[in-house]
Amino acid sequence: MTTASIPWMQSDVARRPLVERLHDWVTTVDHKRLGILYVVYALVLLVVAGIEAAIMRIQLMAPHNDFVSPQVFNRMFTMHGTTMIFFVAMPLVFGFANYLVPLMIGARDMAFPRLNAFSFWLTAFGGVLLHFSFLGGSGLYGAGTAPDVGWFAYAPLTAKTFSPGHSTDYWTLALLVSGFGSIGTAINILTTILCLRCPGMTLGRMPLFAWLSLTMAGLVILAVSPLSAAQMMLLVDRYLGGHFFDTQAGGSAVIWMHFFWVFGHPEVYVLVIPAFAVVSEIIPVFSRKPIFGYPVMVAATVCIGFISMSVWAHHMFTVGMSPAANGFFVLSTMAIAVPTGIKIFNWLATMWGGTIQFRTPMLFCTGFLFQFLIGGLTGVMLACAPFDWQLGGSYFLVAHFHYVIVGAILFALFGGFYYWFPKVSGRMCSETLGKLHFWLFLIGFHLTFDCMHVPGILGMPRRIYTYEPGRGWDAWNLWVTIGVVFQGLGTLVFVGNLVWSYFEGDRAGSDPWDAWTLEWSTESPPPVYNFAALPVVRSRRPLWDLKHPEDPDWKYEQ
Amino acid sequence: MAALAALLSPTAPSGASATQPLSPTSIFAPVSTPADSIFELSLFVLAVTAAIFVTVFGLLLYAVVRFRRKTNDDGTEPPQVYGSYEVELAWTIIPVLIVVALFLATARMIASTQHPAKPRNALDVVVIGHQYWWEYRYPAFDVVTANELHVPVSDAADPAPTFLTLLSADTDHSFWVPRLAGKTDLIPNHPNSMWIDPHETGLYLGQCAQYCGTQHAKMLLRVYVDSREDFDRWIEAQRRPAQADGAVARGRDVFETTACVNCHAVAGTAAGGRFGPDLTHFMSRDTIAAGAAANTPENLRLWIRNPDTLKPGSLMPAMNLSDADVNAVADYLESLR
């Protein structure tokens, strides 16, 4: 194969017309291109959902503000939540897994390349459908017929009686369609990891990233399926006169909560496990040590996956479950802190005694560690049902989960961007801009989400478009809004950095970080076939073995 | 640290009056047994998690400073350490013990607070959540009121707890008055209950804590904890028929011949609607529109003329009354004491 047939590689061959190149992207079944499509798609929607968040924060910066109407505010928080979870976070983790898993396990592509493309386009269609709702009814300024029932869409607010028109249908269909895509991708990742590993790559020698992607894929199949079932039941309620959730006709609102959270809680781990995966690859390389306690890390992850299936009703401590049921979910939720704690200690032990280089990826992973610690601890507090009776559904809770989703997951994925950008583009990201991004975002993040805990403790519930003065919330809300400005600037610097570095960055070479996993053994960017000859591995760090023939890893691994 | 101490203390630092908390809705200023127990448990949980935080944060900070690559680093790799089962075992067992301790404390508190046997002298109140207002029924006294809940004060020697049965007329809501108790949801077809025994008189604020529709934000809660005498007086007043003298006959006429009566009730008259708040003793309330505005003549007229200006998304429609009719209806309502 000549380079002329791989026109998207850096080459001297004249570039083909734009239409042809676009056509190649739209029809591609290459896991790397699909990975990039996922990530670019997610970044576009990250900006959209960020703007939605900013609109909410402008509205809440002062009591009795009337920047937007209550209905527009309700649409904003519904769209922000739905978009961030389903069309930013999920595509991001799928994009990373799509791009990296085959490279890391020494495969030439995913197990089902065409299913892979189909899954991406389903996800993409879901997001477009959701945002198309902005154009209906009262148009963009009145936020159209965008859904306004919250990303959790509790029954019976979604019943025809309380949600006439089509706003809830946009929400239902968008999530149903993208859910099919997610399940397809998960099956693909699972099959690829189980069937396409290169010679010598036993399950026990896979990079942690692959192990964690395997767990994530399993969770997606188990979690998204009940969500899809619930979406179909909701459609039956709304259009065929079903009474699953329609309380006016005797249906049950609580059943919807169970369906939703049986999906919704594992979903948190669907997102955070890939973040763990990214951190588990970056920390060893920049500390110059192997990951501490590999088998324990794998066991802890799988353990988290299993326990996460049994904690969903901690979202329902206030719906009046029996004390025994409350007790069970308190215990299972707290139990998850144990394997999670083990992981934090193992990352710490990996850094301990190393020579840590604070390049941009490592900076973001350090931020991840600090913030995930706090997010995890407030999670343990909220796991105490009585504490949750006070602060569940308040801004304290909003602060807690943003600590996990932004402070941990997004920080880890930012680290992943800077770490693998050289592999994907063949060029290094600007360190200066990367560090500027880090500090702006760090300051903005803490200003926003540290301050958010306080109004919660002072009794501010979430999802209110305005509040009364004199409750002690005003100043805190103003600080929260100021923090958003910094986060917005940080995001601009980040996107600017990606674009600038893609054209002007230094050439990366195949292994700029002196790393150890297989993706660094091929060119940057990798050719369509990934590896000219499939690699053969004997340990968890094949490139360490190559670079240190005198002291290879396989001597020490059981 | 000063800010944190101020936050944690149940009452504001010196300068403010001793009974005035930092915020009228702070969970750290409990005045009722359920809120007290949660506050105590929260302090315990906070102490445990703070200790974990300080330990791990310290280790992390130490690692970041101590093991950062020096400028004179010669590029040799540090010792390659693959793991240690002894260490892993230690940091598995210790967290397990901490979790067990936290769980036991939590379970004990759940057992003592949730669903206790109802004492015979408890006051029963049925709370019904509506889009976007609260209905309160006192079955023992045959009293129906809205948005402002009155309960008697309780004390340890002579407890007078209030049991709330929580129902919903439409979507999910949640009853949350942070200084009295944690929240409990109001879910259609799923009756819930909770109890409070406030031991200080006063006005306690809260609001709906479960997203229930467009005007979720202005579904405010006001709980008046009265002395026993004040409470008895209040309930007696509520049981009496509302006064409506002849001077307001025109307003009453407008009220009863327009759609108002489809939703609102005034005991002893033809008005029997149950969709909106019962207006029998309208002037005994400090606020209108579920706490969204003070009960002043101007606000009342604004509200009757076009509810959407005061509370956009409210389910009360503008009736397009003439100015004379708006005034007449307002005069009538103001005569209901």
Notes on the structure:
The complex is a heterodimer of chains A (558) and B (337). By secondary structure, chain A is mostly helical. Chain A is 65% helix and 0% strand. Chain A has 16 helices and no strands. In chain A, helix 3 runs antiparallel to helix 4 and helix 6 packs antiparallel against helix 7 (253-287). The radius of gyration of chain A is 23 Å and the shape is globular. The two termini of chain A are 40 Å apart. Mean pLDDT of chain A is 94; it is low at 1-5. Chain B has 337 residues and is of the alpha+beta class. Chain B has helices at residues 2-8, 33-66, 85-113, 228-239, 249-257, 260-263, 297-305, 307-310, 323-334, and strands at 123-130, 133-138, 143-146, 148-152, 162-168, 173-175, 184-186, 192-196, 202-207, 220-226, 287-288, 293-294. In chain B, a hairpin with a 4-residue loop joins strand 2 and strand 3. In chain B, helix 2 (33-66) packs antiparallel against helix 3, helix 5 crosses helix 9 and helix 7 (297-305) crosses helix 9 (323-334). Chain B is elongated, with a radius of gyration of 27 Å. Chain B starts with a helix and ends with a helix.
